[in-house]
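Re: that chain you flagged

S.,

Sorry for the slow reply, it's been a week of failed gels. I finally had a moment to sit down with the sequence you sent. For the record, here it is as I used it:
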Amino acid sequence: MIKRISAGVLVSLMLPPGMASAQSFNVCHGYDCTYRTKVTLSSKEESRIRTLLQKAGRSANDERKALGMAVAIFEERGTATIGLRDKPKMQFGKARIKGQMDCVDESINTDSFLRYLQSRGWLKHHTVVRRTTRGSFIDGRYPHWTAVIKDTSEQSWAVDSWYEAGGGLPDIMPLQEWKRRGYRGER
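Prediction finished late last night. Pasting the structure tokens below so you have them in one place:
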């Protein structure tokens, strides 16, 4: 017997981990994307996010502020679906605990969500670019990942949700400033 696969299921099978399809996402958690949980934004949440971004359409700065709130809404839904609240930063020795996220999980999830917003045409002043990292142990810092956006003036911005618990506002700052940080737990 041949089983038919719907177009939506086929698309979701072809997407890499964390990539969004419609308003559903595979949210990574447990460190290094050990676990993936399907998270779906409600139509109310999606409408709230769209409205935030539409109202912020005047400037790149306003859009970044709205993006921070949108990421927080997305993370609230994720932690509610997983059923466990992510603690801020990384808890050493806590790998493979469902719900807890390291910077790899956070950056993949944020990147996926930002790409979803971009695919909907809701970003007017930014484009999503490849995630990046800072730190390499030899420079006295742990490696740390972030999602990245670029504004229309070609300025890159880090969107880093790792420092707050799930649902907290992410740090959004110029990427070069973000790259200089990270010593002794500094944001």
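What I noticed first: Confidence is low (pLDDT under 50) at residues 1-21.

Talk soon,
D.
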